[in-house]
Specification:
Layout lengths: L1 E9 L8 E9 L7 E4 L12 E11 L8 E8 L10 H11 L6 E12 L2 E2 L26 H14 L3 E6 L5 E9 L1 H21 L3 E3 L16 E4 L1 H5 L1 H13 L1 H5 L6 H4 L14 E3 L6 E3 L1 H6 L4 E3 L8 H18 L4
Parallel strand pairs: 1-5, 12-13
Antiparallel strand pairs: 1-2, 3-4, 4-5, 6-7, 6-9, 6-10, 6-11, 8-9, 11-14, 13-14
Helix pairs in contact: 1-9, 2-3, 3-9, 5-9
The structure holds adenosine-5'-diphosphate (ADP) and manganese (II) ion (3 copies).
Protein name: Glutamine synthetase
Family: Belongs to the glutamine synthetase family.
InterPro entries: Gln_syn_GlnII, Gln_synt_N, Gln_synt_N_sf, Gln_synth/guanido_kin_cat_dom, Gln_synth_cat_dom, Gln_synth_gly_rich_site, Gln_synth_N_conserv_site, Glutamine_Synthetase
Length: about 325
């Protein structure tokens, strides 16, 4: 007997990478082998030297095909087994290992938007729906669009064993969110990429497209972000470490922003629950700040912070690497680990 392994990888498309996948049939009990693909079709190689290598890094049950079938997230290597330049996971693993003793946790809120026939789901042909106000966490056919896909996606993530922790309808019609975590930096990012793949895949069956575009509708409509909640052991135990992390993010604000997803300037305008991309601030309960300290965290004098700046289309391997690097370095320097 055989099983199907869906090899999934992140390509080299710029400015925002795409997910790719293909199926391999394997004999029951077989280990997952290295595999190859045509990098010249994925912006990862020239045609004259096109082979790239897929190395399995995270496997889970395939909840779409069921049975013994599996989904296999891969990293991309060159044929000499060095990481390909598009392989941001390899860089994260290095940083995560360096600061493993600080026990970083992440919870990422993935916002996204459904599209059908060229417009967001719930937008009438040639016009606009009622202005924002009633859609966030709404209920009813006049407020909520695409719930059948969202529920199916949630079930698939749970069946796959991903660390999904919730869902909600968002501020713009057709816009939704799911949360992954809390989990370590590499785990949260692997699970998020897998959950993204499942989202695109299940939406196919409903003839709907999901997009992580950061500002899918111009004008007075919320963009789509990927708020990144973060703590270390020291932050979960005391408030000084929370402030040290916020100050470290302030010092490195621009380096972070330029890696927080394509078109971040279009989304972080200072309106629609955002802080301007070129101004950094942090504050308690403040959804207009770059980084929010939840009220409960201030009350308890320990917990986590929420970086509200990352776009929906951010690479989770990159945002977790930057946050671990910036905050854990500062905590170490301050002697707060
Ligand atoms: P919001 O109020 O911003 O919409 P959500 O409930 O959508 O918040 O998301 C909060 C996220 O924070 C969840 O993914 C949760 O797992 C994560 N989280 C909770 N505690 C911690 C922690 N100590 N460290 C990191 N992430 C955390
Ligand atoms: Mn949320
Ligand atoms: Mn949200
Ligand atoms: Mn949030």
């Amino acid at each position: 007997m055989t099983f199907k392994a869906e090899y999934i990888w992140i390509d080299g498309t710029k400015p925002t990478a795409k997910l790719r996948s293909k199926t391999r049939i394997l004999a029951d009990g077989a280990e997952l082998p290295l595999w190859g693909f045509d990098g010249s079709s994925t912006n990862q190689a020239e045609g004259s030297s096109s082979d790239r290598v897929l190395k399995p890094v995270f496997t889970c049950p395939d909840p779409i095909r069921g049975g013994d079938n599996v989904l296999v997230l891969c990293e991309v290597l060159n044929t000499d087994m060095t990481p390909h330049v598009s392989n941001t996971r390899a860089t994260l693993v290095e940083v995560a290992e360096r600061f493993a003793d600080q026990e970083s946790w992440f919870g990422i809120e993935q916002e996204y938007t459904f599209f059908k026939e060229g417009r967001p789901l719930g937008f009438p042909q040639g016009g606009f729906p009622a202005p924002q106000g009633g859609y966030y966490c709404g209920v009813g056919a006049d407020e909520v669009f695409g719930r059948d896909v969202v529920e199916k996606h949630l079930d698939l993530c749970l069946e796959a064993g991903l660390a999904i922790s919730g869902i909600n309808a968002e501020v713009m019609p057709g816009q939704w969110e799911f949360q992954v975590g809390p989990a370590g930096p590499v785990e949260v990012a692997d699970h998020l990429w897998m959950a993204r793949w499942l989202l695109y895949r299940v939406a196919e069956d409903f003839d709907i497209a999901a997009t992580l575009d950061a500002k899918p509708v111009k004008g007075d409509w919320n963009g789509a972000g990927a708020h990144t909640n973060f703590s270390t052991k020291a932050m979960r135990e005391g408030y000084d470490a929370i402030i040290t992390a916020c100050e470290a993010l302030a010092e490195n604000a621009l380096e972070h922003i330029k890696n927080y997803g394509a078109d971040v300037e279009d989304r972080l305008t200072g309106h629609h629950e955002t802080a301007r991309w070129d101004q950094f601030s942090y504050g308690v309960s403040d959804r207009g700040a770059s980084v929010r300290i939840p009220w409960q965290v201030e009350a308890d004098k320990k917990g986590y912070i929420e970086d509200r700046r990352p776009n929906a289309n951010v690479d989770p391997y990159t945002v977790t690497r930057l946050m671990v690097d910036t905050c854990c370095t500062a905590l170490e320097k301050a002697g707060q680990v």
